[in-house]
Every structure is written in structure tokens, then in C-alpha cells.
Amino acid sequence: MIKITALEKFYRTEEVETIALNKLSIEVKEGEFVAIMGPSGCGKSTLLNILGLLDDPDGGSYLFNGTEVAHFNERKRADLRKHNIGFVFQSFNLIDELTVFENVELPLIYTGVPSSERVSRVEKVLDKMQIMHRRNHYPQQLSGGQQQRVAVARAVVNNPKLILADEPTGNLDSSNGNEVMELLTDLNEQGTTIIMVTHSEHDARYSHRIIRLLDGQTVVENIMI
Amino acid sequence: MLRNYIKIALRNLSRHKAYSVINVLGLAIGIASCLLLYIVVRYENSYDTFQPNYSRIMHVVTADKFPDGMVYNSGVPFPMADALRADYPSIKTGAIFASPGSQVTVLNSNKNDNKFIERNGLFYCEPQFFEVFQYNFLAGNAKVLAEPNTVLLSKDMAVKYFGDWKTAIGRLLRIDNALTLKVSAIIDNVPGHSDFPLKIVGSFAAMKTAAATYGYEPTWFGMTSNYQVFMLLPPGITQAAIETQLKQSNVKFYGAHAYTKRTHLLQPLSDIHFDTDFSNFGDHITSKSKLLTLTLIGVLIIVMACINFVNLSTAKAVTRSREVGVRKVLGSSRKQLFWQMMGETALMVFIATALALLIAALALPYIKNIMTIQETLSILRTDILLFVLAGIIVVTFLSGIYPSLILSGFTPALALKNKITSATVGGISLRRGLVITQFAISQVLIIGTIVAVSQMDFISKADLGFNKDAVLVLNANTDSAAISRQAAFKQRLLQLPGVQSVTFSSDVPQSDNDWQTNFSYDHRPDEKYSIDLKFADPDYFKTFGLRFLAGRPFALADTINEVVVNQTLLAKLHVAKPADAIGKQIRIGTAPWKNIVGVVQDFKTNSLRESVKPVFISTRKKYYSVTSVKLHSANVLQAPQAIQAEWNKFFPEYANTASFLDKSIENYYQQEGQLSLVYKIFAALAIFISCLGLYGLVSFMAVQKTKEVGIRKVLGAGVGHIIYLFSKEFTLLILAAFIVAAPVAYFLMHNWLENFVFRIDIGAGVFAAAILTSVIIAWLTVGFKAVKAAYVNPVKSLKSE
Fold this sequence. Notes:
The complex is a heterodimer of chains A (225) and B (801).
Chain A: E1 2-12, E2 17-28, E3 33-37, H1 44-51, E4 59-64, E5 67-68, H2 74-84, E6 85-88, H3 100-110, H4 115-128, H5 144-156, E7 162-166, H6 174-189, E8 193-197, H7 201-204, E9 209-214, E10 217-223
Parallel strand pairs in A: 3-8, 3-9, 6-7, 7-8
Antiparallel strand pairs in A: 1-2, 1-4, 4-5, 9-10
Helix pairs in contact in A: 3-4, 3-5, 4-5, 5-6
Chain B: H1 2-15, H2 17-45, E1 57-66, E2 69-73, H3 80-87, E3 92-98, E4 102-106, E5 115-118, E6 122-125, H4 129-132, E7 137-139, E8 150-154, H5 155-162, E9 172-175, E10 179-187, E11 200-203, H6 204-209, H7 211-214, E12 227-232, H8 239-254, E13 262-268, H9 269-272, H10 288-317, H11 321-329, H12 334-370, H13 382-408, H14 412-416, H15 428-461, E14 471-475, H16 480-484, H17 486-495, E15 499-505, E16 516-517, E17 519-521, E18 531-535, H18 539-543, E19 548-551, E20 562-566, H19 567-573, H20 578-581, E21 585-588, E22 594-600, E23 615-618, E24 626-631, H21 639-650, E25 659-660, H22 661-668, H23 670-704, H24 706-714, H25 719-753, H26 764-791, H27 794-799
Parallel strand pairs in B: 6-11, 8-10, 18-23, 20-22
Antiparallel strand pairs in B: 1-2, 1-12, 1-13, 3-6, 3-12, 4-5, 4-9, 7-10, 8-11, 9-10, 14-24, 14-25, 15-24, 16-18, 17-21, 19-22, 20-23, 21-22
Helix pairs in contact in B: 1-12, 2-10, 2-12, 2-13, 2-23, 10-13, 10-15, 10-23, 12-13, 15-23, 15-25, 15-26, 17-21, 23-26, 25-26
């Protein structure tokens, strides 16, 4: 599903050039659950941003379902993103001005789903995430675990083929964290490909494969059994 | 999608209340100011446009070339209308004669108060005038004016005189105690935006029968601006063509004695309200430059309001970066985000506009008052609503495009990590540039206000060279019966307590009357310029406190006997010492030579816009239409009633028109006074808007600098340091704005002052005051927030990061 080859990304300031990704090559198959680990500054987030088409690589190739997307323009990237990729962030990134229901509804609006269908789909996914009773609350009124469940609901409401999760349990206590990991595992079992960046060995154990990065390069890949 | 945008826009508005209030209020005040100025400018531009032949009506005027420049007159000699009709039989031509200040007596009235002084609106017209100008007749028609003793009234006048216009036909009015006219037609009220405020229109033929009262002399050698002729050019005949032919007719008009320096020109009706070279029958002329100034102020204020919006929105963009990031991650395209932000701007502009309409509606009565607009103005007019609609679109785009481009352009990866700071948003230099622009505009307005106010103050306190205080002026006509009663009237007035002196004259020292003639001095040939005439009894000098430089007042006489002149005349004649003129002879027109017995120090003869004119003062009883009474200052409140009572006894056929001289002098500067008031109001608004913007910016700065302030305080910075940190940048911006504003303001106000012969200099003080004002206002605005930021516990501010 995803094949990146010799991917490069540099950050330049006036005097220093930092290499974030150094000719990195990775392949992720459909239905896989992959964890990416590594110390701070090793390029995990940069990689996730590029995979999610939130950032441009400076070199190399990125094939998404066989299509070269590394140099897509903004419009094409937005288009690909909204139909194929769901995001879960460490800091949830819910929109404070919108209710739970409206936050989850947002991706459906952007993909042009008609209103009546949106209601049933949002309700279904809220139900699944057991957050239906909070549908009219605003994010600030929820606990961290609840907020992340909303964020996951929002990530999956469009039935994306790929979910990119950036330390999804980083801001949660262990029981809430486990709940979120269970959710992701369920989704994966239903066929969604998941790529998750994490610092937590515990969380990484939910995945099929761990890719460890150091200084923008793969150092080791562990296959989980 | 749209619903989602509106929802989030509304929630954003209510979540960030302070920001919303600042933005909406700033915009609302800007839009309201702009709207009010538009209403005023549109109103002024609408004068007489309701005339169906507006673009083809031409006013025949006179231009005389003198060595020191052109002298223009709105009038023409009395034979002009007939001459034009003979020369251009196919062109409709009509004459109108204005008689301002005439007295109308309602005959057979059962009311006691049946005498009215009509300051304006009384005219004598040829029936042909109504072929050029169109009015709506409620009863009768213009043909009645062909008869000699008829008058037509506007509906309001008919109601004023007779209670009901329907019963007015056939009733009698006596005008100026000289003519008795029968009401023969009624016209609908002339709209307020007309320079032809026809209220009482007598037949021109009737006026001719009272030639002495109205100074009607059908020769080519007299002229008054009260007599004006209008032509309706048929399609295809141009103004230039007629002007060329008029030039050729000069010899025919003026004969061998031709005024070779005279030309008659055509002034289009569309210029009459704006051309300050000529007078009109309305209550004011609005120069195009004044309208331009008002338009400019309106544009500047709206620009300031938009700048505010742009500044605040881009500053606030930082706090919305996460939302933008999330939306992009969820699949929003840049275009969708751009339009979302534009939609939010539009919503704010819309709310601001609604508020602006309310403000404008409430302010409209005051504006009407300031601008002396007589007509009812309403906001609910198609053109005004269209203007508002256009305004919403323009303001939305001006204010929205830049912030929307900035916001929608955020890179999602950065936006999500809150790595977008004010320093990276839209370049600080642009925002600085906008603040500089804003301050520059308010400084121009501040400087303009200071100059305009000082000039008006200078005028009101200027030494006019005569005493204008506590002088009560009464006007009457100069019919011989009234004149014969003057001596006894004066004796009686002098017996009243509080009356210091009384004088009869043709005119007060300073007025907009322009009675001039040719003259010669000391048996030399006629001078190449004319002299102003004033006739008065010897008490004139005492009553108005005129100061003698040489000689004495003239002796009492009924006709021209001895003469007093002013300093300016001697300067123009190159007479070195005032005493040298005493005993010399002077002659006006072709009258006999008379001795100069006194020279008075210059006094202002006309408005301070004009220079002092050479003046000839002598006795001539038949022209004494003005009674001036100098009162003891302690009696200015009671004495007028007693004087009025005496007036009614001595001149029962004349209405009382008493008014104080200083008040009438104030009226000469009404236009300037209005403009200076407008400057004041809108400068204050502009300053307020820029303060709002500044306050908003500093608020955001305070939020963003929270961490910096915390670190500085931990490192030992005091409150003073923190305030300095905040004020430094804005003070520098104000200084930069001043560098832009000062020359612009100097140029504009220097031009404005050119309208006045007697004017102030724009000194360094004005500029110092302007910059000081803006710095102080900015400090006060910034200071509050800065002090608040400075006192926050550093532990708290560091933790919040």
C-alpha cells in the first residue's frame, strides 16, 4: 500500500542544515499495523507528516497504492488525504468551537457526504466508540480519554484505508491508553492499515511490526508475533 | 458546509468577545462615518438635479476684467433677457429677480401678526422662467405671471399666510409696502436641495412698476446679482457656441461706450451649487474641494477601519493555526479554508454594517444640523442601500483577503504543532506598515483639525477694525416716508436706557454687500479699480468705533457733501501720509467733486477670505436702510425689547428684523465653521478607530509575550522595563507615521488657508501638538495592557507556555 524509497527531508536554518530523513526506505502492506519508534528527533514525526501528505519530502519517492504522490500539489494532496487517510494525534486536535458530533462530522462534510447520511454515519461511529452520550458536548467538557475516542471516531468516520496515529496515548493515563489501543487494534482487524508513532514499548506491542529509526534511518525492524 | 462555517464563525465571535467587539465596533464606526459622509456628499451633488432639463439649463453671467484680476457677477444688466430672446428666438430664455429680506404683509388678515420678513424665497419672475425651469403647479399656471399684479406661492407659504393653500387663490399680499399682488397660482414646495427656493414669486411686470424700491433700471450700465437670466439650450446647441456669439454681441449691447473688458459667459446649472466665483439664490455654495475633502475623509476612515481588521485578524490568526491545521488534515483544501475565513469576515462586516446603519440613523439629525441640510434625509433609500451593499463587499474584500490568504496558507504540519508565531505570520513589516499608515492618517486629521480650529478662532477673535459687539442692527426699506421718520426715531431711541448711540447707514462696516463704482482722486483720470461705497450719518464712526488716522467725521448732510476714506485707498493711490489726503478732492462716477475730511484706519469690509477694499464713506440720506444701535454691554438683554416697541410705533408697516451684528458676522464663516467641526468630529473618530486597533494589537502582543515577560521578570526586569518593552515599538511607529503625515497635512492645510486673506501661519507648534497628542493617546492605550502584563506573576506566565 505504501512504498517509500530513498526518502529525504532536510530542515534548514540560516547556518545549519539538519537531516531529518536520510534516504529512508520503508514498505507497508495493506492491513498491516506498524509501529514506528525511536528517540526524540530521529524523524518519526517528519515521516508521519510526509506519509500523511502534510509535508513534502526533499527527495526520494513515495508510492501510495502504486501512485507517485511525493510531488502532488496542495489540491491533489488534500483530495487524497480526505478519501484515504485518517489521523489521530497525541494532543487530540479537536476543534474547540465544535461539538463532539460536529467534530466527527467534519471529514464527511469535506468529502461531500449528504447531510442525512452524515447523521447516521456519525451516530454509528460515536456509538461504536461509546461516546454517543457526549455528542452535544464541547471538547473542553470531556476527559482526555473521551477526547481521544472522539479523535479516533473522527479519524475513522470516513472509512479510511490508512490511519496515521502520532503517539495516540501520549496524553492519556494507562487505562484510557489501553482503551484507545484496543480501538485501533479492532480497526486493524477490520482491515484498516495503521501506522503509529510511539515512545511506548507497551503500545508498540499491539502492532505487527516495529520500525526503529535513528537519525533519519531505519536501524532495525522487529516483527511481532 | 456553509452552515458549518456560519456556526463556527458565530461561535468564534462569541468566544473571543473582546476581539469581536473591537473589530466590529471599529468597522461599524468606520462604515457609519463613511455612510454619513456619503449621504452628505450625495445630497450636495443632488442640487437641482430634479429639474427635467438639468443638463441643458444655462445661467448667463458676467465677467469683468480688471488690472488686478477678474470680477465675476451672477447677474446681468436688466435688458439682457429681452436682448437674448431677440437674438435667439428658438432658445427659451427667462429672467428671475430675487428680493431677499423683503417684507410680505397679508392684507385683510384677521391675525395681528400679518407682516413677515422673508429672508429668502421672494422672487419676481417672467413667465418664461417657468419654460426653462419646471415646477409642479397645484393651482393655476405660470401664465398668470404675464399679468402685472399677480403672485404665485409655494404650498407652505400659502399655508403660512392663509392657513390653507386651497383658499389662497384670489387673496392679496402687499410686498415691501410698494406692491399689492393677487395670489393667482400655487406650486408644490420646492425641494430643499435647490438653489432656487421659490416661495413667493411675483410677476416681473409688477416689479418694474416699483422700480425705485427694487433699483430696476433697464439700462446696460447697471447690474445686480439679484437679476439673473437663464437659457434652456436646445439639444445640439453647445455652451461654447452661445458664448462665442455673446462675445460678438458685446458692441451691440454696450454700444460705442463698449465695456471691452466685459464678457458674458454661460454657467451650467450643474455648476451653480459648486462655483464659488458666483453667488446663488440658495443658502450656501459647496465648493467641489469641500466635497472632495469630505469624500477623502470618508475613504480614509474606512481604510483605517479595514487596516484595523487586517491587523487584528492576522495577529489573531496565530491562535487559530491549530484549527486550520486540523481542517487541512481532515481534507479541507486551501480554497475552502480561504472562503471560510472570507465568510467569517463577511459575517463580521455584516454585523458591523447593521450596527453602522443604526449609528448613522441616530447621527443623521445632528449631521443635518451641522451641514445645514434642510431636507429630511433617510437611510432607507435605494441608492443608499446599494451603497451599503457595495460597501459590505468592498470592506469584506479589503479586510478579509489578506488574513484569509495567510490563514489558509498555513502548513498543516507546523500549524498542528503550534509552531506558528506572530513573527512568522504575514511578516511583521507589513503589519508595521499598516499601523504606520493608520497613525499617519490620524495625524493628518489631527493636524488638519488643529489648523482649522485655530484659523476659526483667529477669525472670531480677529481685530476687524471696528466694534461689532453689542450693536443691534435693524433693516428697513428706503421709502421716503420711512426715511422722513428716522430723525424722530433716533431721538426716541437715544432716550432709552442702555442706548449709547444710533446711526443710519446704507450698510454696516463688514458685510457681503458689494456696492462699487468707478472714481477719481485729486482731479486725476479715473482709477482702474472701483471703490466700495457706504453712506451713513456722522454717528456711524462713533457707533462702530472706527478710528481716525487723520481728519474728522463728516458733517451731517442729506446728500453727498464731505467724504471719509480708508487707509487701503490711500495705499492704492500711493498717498504716503493720511494727513496728505485731507483737503484733497474725490469724485464717484460722474458726480461733483467732494472734499476728503477724514481717513479711518482699515476695517474689514468683507469676509476675511477677501482683502480689505478701498472705501468711500459719505452722507446720503435716501440710502439709509440700516439702523444700528450701540448698546451698553449691561443692557444687551433688555434694550432690544424696548427698541422693538419703538420700531413698531414708528414703522408699523415694517416688520422688526433686529439682530446683533456679531451674530451676522459669524454667519459669513458658516462654511469654514462647518468644515472645522466636521474635521473635529471625524478626526476624533479616526483617532478612536486607531486606538481600538492599537489596543487589539497590544492585547495580542501581551498574550504572545507572556513567556518573554515571565523570563525577563525572573531575570530581574522591573515593571518599567516591561512597559518600555511594549511602548518602544509603537512610539517608533508613531514617529515614522509622523514623517509621512507632516508634509501631507502641511500641503493640504496650506491650500485650505489660501482661501483666507487673513490667516494663521502653520507653525512648528501645530506639528508638535499633533505628535504629542498621538504619542500620549498611544501610550495610554498601550499602557493599560502593558501594566497588566507587567504585573502578572512570572511563575504563572512561564507555566502557561
